[in-house]
Amino acid sequence: MPISLFLQAAGFRLVSLAPVDIAIITLYFAAVVAIGFYLKRYTKTGEDFFLAGREMTAWIAGLSFLAANLGSLELMGWAASAYQYGILATHWYWIGAIPAMLFLGIVMMPFYYISKTHSVPGYLKLRYGEPARGLSAISFAVMTVLMSGINMYSMALVMKVVLGWDIHFSIWVSSLTVALYVFLGGLLSAIFNEVLQFVLIWLGALLISIIGLIETGGWSGMVARIASNFPGQNYTHLWSTLGHFSDNPMGIHWTGIVLGLGWVISFGYWTTDFLVVQRVLAARDLRSAKLAPIIGASFKMLVPFIVILPGLLGLAVLPQKLVGEGQAVASGAHSYNEVLPLMLARYCGPGLLGLGITALIAGFMSGMAGNVSAFATVWTYDIYRALIKRDSTDAHYVAVGRWCTLLGVLISIGTAYLVMQFLSIMDYVQALFSFFIAPLFGTVLLGMLWPRATPAGGFWGLLCGTLSSIGMWLWVKLDPGALRYIALSAHARDMAENMYRALWSWIICVTVTVLVSAATSPKPAGELEGLVYGFTKLPSEEHLPLTRRPIFWAGVVAAVFIVLNIIFW
Amino acid sequence: MHREGLVSIWFFIGVLLVIYGALIAGSGLYELAAPPEHPVVLAGLHAEIWWGALLLILGGFYSWRFAPRRRR
User: Fold this and answer.
1) Residue A202 burial by CB count (10 A; 0-12/13-18/19+): exposed, middle or buried?
2) Torsion sign across C-alpha atoms A464, A465, A466, A470
3) Separation CA A166–CA A85 (nearest Å)
4) Does B31 touch chain A (CB under 8 A)?
5) N or C, which end of chain A is more exposed by having fewer CB within 10 Å?
6) Cα A68 from Cα A377, distance rounded (Å)
7) How large is the average pLDDT for residues A502-518?
């Protein structure tokens, strides 16, 4: 989210808290820390600390899977995007998530789960060898803590603007709270708290949509008010304005949404980003591991009702027009990023306001805990154990994991302070993170579905895909005219550039992997067992009643997904 | 989860929701008796009271359903 200018606008506060609100927020902090202390006694082995003992039910793993993604600025950022771009922002929740989550559950999860890997880089080690694992582990670990720091800084900034809290207080209190409960209980504690945070996010944010719809007289009343407030602009159709780049406020074509977002970026993130996949690896059996992303997908489809709808309601009911950050700083007006707090302040009195703010904080913390626990696992298993100290005791690796949690948080805090000094770092690191996602999806997908993919093919494909993504980004930075080649149109905007860059880097990764694999020797069939389609014995589900089969529920979610897209077409 | 003695996360959630429900509904009832100077939009709906009550009911159910003694 572009909030780099937010700080300059932060000389006031949007809402004031009553004692009951402060009590609610304080209780939340006490609860998450208490859960960490309680779970410490259940976290003794590496399996406990890094994979929560692989005992999670499908529901717990599924909700945690989704909560870890809610991230630090999910609620505020996408509500702001909904105000700016209208219902088009919903694509990031529907086509940009649901097909990929179902694909993860039904097609990819069996290979992750049966291989008994601790991480996504760990799978690459089994499938392609150490070089591919090293490349993905180091890039993931570095980017995860950097992103965590950026999110932390952004959260502190939001708290400063919304509540007037001191920026240092927000950074240290929230990050040390997360550090404490993940340090104590590892992934088990992170997952427990993510489920709690998931419930609080819903209960804190849902009321805005309910009261907003009452005020506007329902969906049709809201659409009518938006049309009246913003004549000539289409904010309430999902697909019908995507025929041309200049027909919609996002400046994107439907091919960018379907191929760039719906295929490469979405599948790359949801199926290979270890931050979310780690939650599913903690499931107690394969059926639960397959069901968890499907449960996550069913809730993901509903998230627009607490994130996008408040943004749309803002377009309908807010008396003032919100503007971009630069304009807000210059004119003193409210920015897009403030739409959710403004709606919160509009409808929520004492008590409910505290619950709403708790929902925002819970969102920030669940995302940060996801980053930190994933960092600790990848660092310990895929970097420290693989490259530094191979043969040590399980207790030693648990201790390393615990200290890595603190280290990860400290690096994140350092990044947050660095960003505070040099705001442009935020844009660079966010771009850097995106470089790895799309090619990694190509590497993992070919590894799982194409037995002929070789270790050299996997490594070089991943490297070339990543480098090409960086190259395209630099090309457009140095020569903005290059956008017409990357995004296929000079009218394309930043969002469209990201979509197409991801698509090209994925194509390059797959092409290089195929070409290099064709020229090198494949692994023997015996080494592909449990890792590749056709060489892995997948347990039959035919003995299960239909309603207990993951494929049945995936079909139900897919049908609802299609219907929702048609309704809001 | 089936780890010996481990209290379900739903119990923790239930307890927290009961406390939140009581605080929010209580705050709503107080506002009913002493209306604020600057009420929120649609304050007449008394959202604090019914949302607090909903939290109390949900929290009560989860606290009871997943209480440690009951699960054993």
Assistant:
1) middle
2) positive
3) 31
4) yes
5) C
6) 15
7) 94
Phi and psi based region of residue A202 (left: phi greater than 0; alpha: psi -120 to 50; beta: remaining): alpha
pLDDT at A7 over 50: no
Nearest-Cα distance to chain A for B71, in Å, is 16
Q: CB distance from A495 to chain B under 8 Å?
A: no
Give the pLDDT mean for A563-567: 96
Q: What is the DSSP string of A344-363?
A: HHHH--TTHHHHHHHHHHHH
Decide: A513 and A453 in contact? Cβ < 8 Å. yes
Statement: residue A2 has pLDDT above 50: no
Q: At what angle do helices A218-229 and A304-317 cross, to 10 degrees?
A: 50
Predicted complex ipTM: 0.94
The distance in angstroms from the start CA to the end CA of chain B is: 13
The C-alpha R_g of chain A, in whole angstroms, comes to 23
For the purposes of burial, counting CB atoms within 10 Å of the CB of A66, is it exposed (0-12), middle (13-18) or buried (19 or more)? Answer: buried
When the pLDDT of each residue in chain A is averaged and rounded to a whole number, the result is 87
**Does residue A195 surpass a pLDDT of 70?**
yes
Q: Look up residue B29 and give its two tokens.
A: 């009832």
C-alpha distances in Å from residue A456, one per residue of A12, A109, A123, A134, A471: 56, 24, 15, 13, 22
Domain A6-567: CATH architecture, name and number where available: Up-down Bundle (1.20)
Distance of CA A4 to the CA centre of its chain: 20
Average confidence (pLDDT) over A285-291: 94
Residues A12-42 pLDDT 10s: 567 788 999 999 999 999 999 999 999 998 9
The distance from CA A519 to its chain's CA centroid, rounded to whole angstroms, is: 37
The amino acid sitting at A192 is F
pLDDT tens string A547-559: 889 999 999 999 9
> What's the confidence (pLDDT) of residue A10?
45
Beta carbons of B12 and A351 less than 8 Å apart: no
Distance from CA of B9 to the nearest CA of A (A): 6
Instruction: Report the pLDDT averaged over residues A405-429.
Output: 80
Task: Give the contacts of A336 (CB within 8 A, at least 6 positions apart).
Answer: A80, A81, A83, A84, A322, A323, A324, A325
Looking at the complex, report in whole angstroms how far the Cα of residue A60 sits from the nearest Cα belonging to chain B: 9
pLDDT in tens, A55-96: 889 999 999 888 888 765 677 888 888 998 899 999 999 999
Q: Determine the Cα–Cα distance for residues A66 and A292; give it in Å rounded to an integer.
A: 9
- Note the pLDDT of residue A324: 78
Domain locations in chain A as residue ranges? 6-567
Four-point Cα dihedral A143, A147, A148, A151, nearest 10: 180
Q: H or E element: which one contains A23?
A: helix A19-40
Q: Provide φ and ψ at A335, rounded to 5°.
A: -100, 165
> Averaged over A323-344, what is the pLDDT?
81
Q: What is the pLDDT of residue A433?
A: 63
Shortest CA distance from A205: residue in chain B: B51
B47 touches chain A (CB under 8 A): yes
Q: Cβ separation of A53 and B3 shorter than 8 Å?
A: yes
Q: Please, where are the H alpha helices in A257-390?
A: 266-272, 274-281, 286-300, 304-317, 325-331, 339-347, 352-377
pLDDT of residue A442: 93
